[in-house]
Amino acid sequence: MQAVEQEDAWLIPLAVSNRHVHLAEKELYTLFGPGYQLHKERDLSQPGQYACKETVTLVGPKGVIEKVRVLGPLRPRTQVEISISDCFKLGVRAPLRDSGDLAGSAPITLVGPAGAVTIPEGCIIAARHIHMSPADAHRFGLKDKDKVFVRAKGPRALIFAEVLVRVHDAFRLEMHVDMDEANAVGLKNGDRVEIVPLHRLGEKKVTGGC
Length: 210
Prior knowledge:
By secondary structure, this protein is mainly beta. It has 2 domains: 7-15 and 128-207, Barwin-like endoglucanases; 19-125, no CATH class. 14% of the residues lie in helices and 42% in strands.
């Protein structure tokens, strides 16, 4: 498989993901009213994904967080993505999971203008990951569900380990971390981080499932 030779060719853009909610139709109608349609506020960097004008309140055993953005389009299951810091504020024990892996995840209550709903599972801390197209995966010599190291430079430089690679025709090249991870390193949207070929660390490429 074709390898990337130039050091700067391993640099990829970063996106910092704040807490947000993906709604299924059932919860959408409970929170905002029967037949309600989401209203797009702006497109996100991943094609087909967008931030909505709508927000909800998250309620946990110890606290609440207001004005949590809803992202579209609708999904088959409602998913709430928060950070470890948010877990402390809400009193929720959300597990670290890949997006869509919701079995046995934390319950949480969502409140909207028309009603409230408590989902028995669906609240997670999203694991750091990289979106890439099949062409990008070929260029880097990677495949879907590989795991890589990623270096963030700067005064608080570090190497992220166990970064999941997600490959799909609809994906645009970008690494996603949550707000806690970004703040710990001093990263912001649009910064570039470096996929580290593991031979530079004296290790073999790490592969595996979620």
